[in-house]
Amino acid sequence: GAPVAAATPAATYAAPPVTAPAFVPAAAPAASYGSAASDDEEWAFQPGERVTVTGPPAMAGKQGEVVGPVPGDAFSVRFDSGSVFNILTSNMQKARELAYA
To answer: Residues 61-91: pLDDT tens digits?
Structure first.
């Protein structure tokens, strides 16, 4: 008979490999995750801290508040819109608060 592979070209995977997105919608951060960390561990960002997201491009410039750490070198961030996303630390910076005298 005919070779099966030639009869089913859809079986070849021409699509690029799927990579993890730079941000993932978060239903809710795991409340117990932070308590599992040692007391002397210093996080890059603290819960309640204001941050500005630098990437990915669709999220760049948005500001929010750190909810807490999540696995994978990321933090759960609640944006001013109310949405919560897990953002990689490499895509976050401390928000600069403007002080008016």
So the answer is: 999 999 999 999 999 999 999 999 999 999 9
How far apart CA 92 and CA 63 sit, in angstroms, is: 9
Sort strands 23-25 and 50-53 into parallel, antiparallel or unpaired: unpaired
Q: How far is CA 50 from CA 29, 53, 87, 92, in A?
A: 17, 10, 13, 10
Omega of the bond prior to 57 within 30 degrees of 0, cis? no
3-state secondary structure of 12: coil
CB contact at 8 A, 75 and 87: yes
Per-residue pLDDT at 43: 87
- Please report, for residues 7, 31, 98, the alpha-carbon distance to residue 47 in angstroms, rounded to integers and kept in the order given: 56, 11, 20
Give Cα 18 distance to the centre of its chain.
Answer: 16
- What does the alpha-carbon distance between residue 53 and residue 73 come to, in Å, rounded to a whole number? 15
**What span, in angstroms and rounded, lies between the C-alpha atoms of 38 and 34?**
9
